Amino acid sequence: MAKTSQALPEVRLQVGDKALPLETVAATEGNDGIALSGLLSQTGLVSLDPGFLNTAACSSEITFIDGDQGILRYRGYPIEQLAQHSTFLEVAWLLLRGELPTQEELGKFEARVDKHMYLSDDFRQIFSVMPRRAHPMATLGAAINMMAGYYPESLDPKDPAAVQLATVLLLAKMPTIVSYIYRRAAGNALLYPKHGQSYVENFARMTFQLPGEKFEVPPAFYRALDTLLILHADHEQNCSTSTVRLVGSAQANIYMSVSAGVGALSGPLHGGANEAVLNMLAYIRDHDLSPKQFMEKVKSKAEGMRLMGFGHRVYKNYDPRAAIVKEQCDAVLDALGVKDELLAIARELEEVALSDDYFISRMLYPNVDFYTGIIYRAMGFPPSMFTPLFALGRLPGWMAQWREMVNDPAAKIGRPRQIYNGHGARDYVPLAQR
Ligand code: CMC
Questions:
Q1: Residue of 114, 226, 319, 369 marked active site
Q2: Is 279 exposed, middle or buried, given 0-12, 13-18 or 19+ CB atoms closer than 10 A?
Q3: pLDDT value at position 303?
Q4: What is the pLDDT of residue 5?
Q5: Catalytic-role residue among 159, 312, 340, 357
Q6: Mean pLDDT in the chain?
Q7: DSSP line for 230-298
Q8: Residue of 401, 139, 113, 118 lying closest to 254 (CA atoms)
Q9: Which atom of ligand 1 is the closest one to the Cα of 298?
Q10: pLDDT per residue as tens digits for the range 297-343
Q11: At what angle do helices 369-379 and 273-286 cross, to 10 degrees?
Q12: What is the pLDDT of residues 361-420, one digit of tens each?
């Protein structure tokens, strides 16, 4: 249900003795906006907002977050309902097209993705030229960039058929690429996708099947994987999505734009946090620290440590994705027959944090990355693969946002201003006189 429409208040900016009326922009949900594009031409001033704490970079119809209430919806559908009832490819369609698919549409879409999962033998070579110790996110970004070279017929951002093809190719080849990155690091031969297996079945088998063995896991494994991908599928204008939009705003092709998003996602303050959480939990265990002792280190800020998997720019309440993952953790670990001492440490850390004034006063709650690593680990993924799994899930969101931007008549090349704080003009001093 959209919020009731109310006239927005008049907004005026007092500049010297002039009151400048500013145009307002209504949102169907969440914060309304003030249009500032005319500010420079009318006042000679620019707006300054490092980290975009207060700046909407676009209007979007895709994802809504209410950070105070802990609400997340894709195209209006609550994340809890999608996580419970949907599949990742259905959610991908929803994000990309705006509506849930009919049975026939979904069937055709799944078949089209299934058809393109294969990677040519030439392309497969790149996994063997990367060192085994390369971080998977470095290889992932490189592989996605390479797709621009392999599929030139899908590059034109202004050709809807080319964009549609690139969207399917990326969705289809990404699980194959991510599984090959893992197999290369593990020293195992690369497997081929099998027609007729679902998206997550193909991905898991290509990742984990050992030579001469059948790959068999309980249905709970696939359901959990599908759910985790759904939870990561979009999150409005986060750092990597904004990167994808910014690169795309120069009319760069979708592969280059998504690859740039992979780079942004790799950072530990963003998608890299899921790997960092696991490393943090292992550090606490290996140093025999109690959660309280670790928390003292975090609060003192002395070693620059943060409680990874906690805090969020938008959520000032429990991240609804974290609530879903936390709820599923026990059931998934039970179904997989895994006991994990790190889960107990995570639970204790959360309990300590949620009753500690440092975290309460700053409104720091668990985010999506806090518990996901425990499930990925139970499935058999090493921590270095956690962020590529995040990227696999986020791909439809990146592409939906890129496509929305490309089709938005109001979109312009992204080009922020600055407040210059350097030297005034000065004359060059010859080397011998310095
Ligand atoms: N542990 C300890 N203190 C924290 C944490 C944390 N995880 N997060 C924020 N703070 C403190 C921070 O030190 C600051 O304190 P003070 O007011 O005394 O200077 C205050 O809270 C506000 O922090 P901020 O860095 O200004 O907040 P931000 O909105 O710029 O940053 C964040 C958001 C997610 C980068 C940050 O909370 C963080 O670093 N969290 C840990 C990394 C993490 O889990 N990232 C995943 C985010 S969710 C998934 C995703 O986007 O990929």
A1: 369
A2: middle
A3: 85
A4: 65
A5: 312
A6: 95
A7: HHHS--SS-HHHHHHHHHHTTT--HHHHHHHHHHHHTSTTTTTHHHHHHHHHHHHHHTT--HHHHHHHH
A8: 401
A9: 2
A10: 999 998 888 999 999 999 999 999 999 999 888 889 999 999 999 99
A11: 80
A12: 999 999 999 999 999 999 999 999 999 999 999 999 999 999 999 999 999 999 999 999
For residue 313, the ligand 1 atom closest to its alpha carbon is 29
Instruction: Identify the pLDDT of residue 3.
Output: 72
Cβ–Cβ under 8 Å, residues 263 and 243: yes
Distance 79 CA to ligand 1 centre (A): 23
Residue 233 structure tokens:
């599928």
Tell me the pTM. 0.95
Q: How close is the Cα of 310 to the center of ligand 1, in Å?
A: 7
Shortest-distance Cα residue to atom 37 of ligand 1: 311
Mutation probe of ligand 1 site: the residue of 65, 315, 362, 367 with most atoms within 8 A of C-beta = 362
Instruction: Identify the pLDDT of residue 331.
Output: 87
C-alpha of 138 from chain center: 16
Q: Which residue has the tokens 């909407």?
A: 56
Ligand 1 pocket test: pick from 79, 313, 370 the residue with the most ligand atoms within 8 Å of its Cβ. Answer: 313
Q: Is there a contact between 275 and 384 (Cβ–Cβ < 8 Å)?
A: yes
Q: Which residue has a Cα nearest atom 48 of ligand 1?
A: 367
